[in-house]
Amino acid sequence: MIKNTLITAVEAGAVELKRFFNGTFTVTSKGSLNDLVTEADHASEKAIIDIIQKNHPDHFILSEETGEIKQNSPYKWIIDPIDGTINFANGIPICCVSIGVELNGEIILGAVYNPFMNEMFFAEKGKGATLNDIKIGVSAEDNLLKSCLVTGFPYQYLDTANGPLQIFEKLVRKAIPVRRLGSAALDLCWTAAGRFDGFYEHKLQAWDSAAGFLIVEEAGGTVTDLKGDVYNPYQPGIIATNGKIHAQLQALVNGGDI
Ligand code: IPD
Ligand code: CA
Ligand code: CA
Question: Whose CA is nearest to atom 8 of ligand 1?
Answer without folding.
Answer: 83
